[in-house]
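Reading a protein record of the kind used here takes little practice once its layout is understood. The reader may check this reading against the record printed directly beneath this paragraph.
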Amino acid sequence: MSRRRSRATSIINLNTGHGAKAGNHPYPTRTPVLVLDFGATSVLVTTTASDQVTASDVDFARQLASEAHAFAVSVERMFLRSPRTTGARA
């Protein structure tokens, strides 16, 4: 039986810009933590448990990496097409 996806009941919009950054924090005795820092707001992405990694965690990490890469490509494409950046190199 497939699981029904429910519609989002709330959406949090975190805008990138000056000062926004992302970082991976690997640890020797626990699973890594991905930090998305937007100035006054930080989002921590962690695995299901702090001491082990599941197949679902690996699947999510791969999906996150793929979608983050696609986001970066889309942002770069729009930046390079922008009239303000014509002739400029990133």
Observations:
- The mean pLDDT is 89.
- The CA atoms of residues 14 and 85 lie 24 Å apart.
- The first strand starts at residue 21 and ends at 25.
